[in-house]
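Hey, I was hoping to borrow your eyes for a little while. I've been staring at a protein lately and its backbone has me curious. You're getting the sequence in one-letter code plus the fold written as tokens. Would you mind checking whether the tokens look sensible for this chain? Here's the protein in full, and shout if anything looks odd to you:
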Amino acid sequence: MRTERTRHNGGVTTDAEYLKDRYGAPRSDQRLTWIVAGFAAVLVLAWFIWQAFTLNQPSITWSEAGLTIVSDSQVDVNFNVSTEVGSTVTCTVRAYTDNTTEVGVKDVTIGPVTSEETGVSVSVATIQPATGARVTDCRFTSE
């Protein structure tokens, strides 16, 4: 339904024209565009910050080098750790049975390391005869 009004100068106007004359033309609503652009900018900035942070972090890698079953209650595990010189890391070594039941665990602290690759030998006490062992985690520690 269109309502017409009479202007003070005698002309006829619609409600939309009347409101435009009285309050000014409505601004083009670009609020959604600015919200989306702002959100995208925040995401891009967060990605750059995350990349800068993770690229500056030293990394740790490890690989098992050997296993010796010493007795029913002990295994010796040899492994290599690669990280930045001067870093101190703690690695968790776990011993297992044939059915992958954990029978022994030991945390070993290495470092501060003097070369990028360090050979480590650790004895793990077990509560049952172990048939295998592996390094499950290495993390930076402070000393």
Notes: Helices lie at 15-23, 31-55. The CA atoms of residues 40 and 46 lie 10 Å apart. Residues 61-140 form a domain with the Immunoglobulin-like fold (CATH 2.60.40). The chain has two helices and eight strands.
